[in-house]
Design goal:
Length: 408
């Protein structure tokens, strides 16, 4: 520990400085031995560098894009297959990587390898980038001498994951754009358009119809209490994320997501496809079924389905067959159960699981196309409803005033 002190010597002269000691009492004793009587002694604290702290936090929370991770796995497969030493491969990839976050991680991994730590343990130090499933596949590859095949499986699996994400993003892009445009239009109308009409109607002193009064009241609330709206929305978002950050909240939210109309079945198909693909990869790598189920349960992306997969592991450990525990989980369709039964009978479970994943991928494609077809009419109805409300609220009083002027 380091202490800063102020003190005076026998002649009364002031001395200031810092001293290393194991405790406050030891520091005071050392200062006295130097002929100085301490008048102020406290533990020295380095000044906080806010920019350095911010940079450290950003580095700790930096994310590596899925594309960069796929490229890394493909490069490691090629380098491992060519027989290039791991440390040299990692060092070379760290110098050529286009991702600053991945570059820092690879440098740290290379340092760990040079100190004698194995690759899987080095990867495990960065759980935000390399999950347990990734680390386990690499660990098996290291122990069996098939590290190149391990990275090949990971690259293929991550590439399929990227394709699934892109399909989902393409399907929801159009609805999100329309909903955003509607929200912006509604905000502009409430803040600028309706108040202008309201001032005109006030000057005319005419009795306003109910739709117009509702629009003016709504607009007035947004104009005068916009801060309250933002506060409520912010509090709701904070409360929601705090809730799903808990284990019970995450489990309940993941269960409810599967029941959302139009979207819930799609999310379930994506999660089951991910389960089948990852489980097949783990079995092909040589991991025991019970260990593979635990790892896949954490990587499935849905805590509710993950709990069902974990329950399957308990059945396997009791001696039940894969088909029986899968049937009891209740998350697989009859067709998938038949394929698993055939795979277990023929000893080709991982191959049949790949077929199951392909089947789920096809179902995802169909569900995405059906989702787009189902959402478009709803969006058109929403747009029509907004236009109708605005038309009734804005043009109905104008029409009434015109009729009154004609009769007079």
């Amino acid at each position: 520990m380091e202490f800063s002190y102020r003190g005076r010597d026998d002649g009364g002269r002031l001395h200031e400085g810092r001293i290393e000691a194991s405790s406050r009492e030891a520091a005071a004793a050392n200062i006295l031995r130097n002929g100085i009587t301490p008048v102020h002694l406290e533990e020295f604290a380095e000044p906080v560098d806010i920019l350095a702290k911010l940079q450290s936090w950003q580095e700790a929370h930096a994310k590596v894009a899925l594309d960069d991770l796929i490229v890394f796995c493909r490069q490691m497969y090629a380098l491992s297959r060519a027989g290039i030493p791991i440390v040299r491969s990692i060092r070379g990839l760290s110098e050529s990587s286009g991702s600053p976050a991945l570059k820092r991680v690879l440098v740290d991994i290379a340092d760990g390898l040079e100190s004698g730590v194995n690759l899987a343990s080095c990867l495990q130090e960065h759980p935000r980038i390399f999950n347990d499933l990734f680390v386990s596949i690499v660990h098996v590859g290291e122990n069996t001498g098939g590290l190149d095949q391990a990275f090949k499986r990971l690259a293929e699996n991550l590439d399929l994951e990227r394709q699934a994400r892109k399909r989902v993003q393409q399907a929801v892009r159009y609805p999100l754009m329309v909903i955003s445009a509607l929200s912006i239009a509604l905000m502009i109308v409430n803040i600028w358009v309706i108040p202008a009409f309201a001032s005109v109607f006030d000057r005319l002193g005419a009795a306003l119809p109910l739709p117009t009064r509702i629009l003016i009241a709504t607009s007035g609330f947004f104009v005068h209490f916009w801060w309250l709206v933002l506060l409520i929305v912010g509090a709701a978002i904070f409360a929601f994320y705090s809730w799903i950050a808990t284990e019970e909240g995450r489990l309940e939210w993941d269960r409810r997501k599967l029941r959302i109309p139009l979207v819930g079945s799609l999310l379930e198909l994506v999660a089951l496809s991910r389960f089948a693909r990852n489980f097949a990869m783990m079995l092909a790598a040589g991991l025991p079924i019970n260990q593979a189920l635990v790892l896949v349960a954490g990587a499935i992306g849905n805590a509710f389905l993950g709990r069902a997969v974990t329950a399957m592991r308990a059945g396997i450990e009791r001696g039940d067959s894969m088909v029986n525990v899968a049937a009891r989980s209740g998350i697989f369709s009859p067709l998938v159960m038949q394929m698993l039964a055939v795979g277990e009978e023929t000893g080709r479970v991982e191959e049949l699981l790949d077929d199951v994943a392909d089947f789920y991928d096809q179902e995802v494609e169909y569900s995405l196309s059906r989702l787009s077809e189902s959402i478009e009419p709803l969006l058109i109805l929403a747009m029509g409803g907004m236009v109708l409300v605005l038309a009734l609220g804005v043009f109905l009083p104008i029409w009434s005033l015109g009729q009154a002027a004609i009769h007079h």
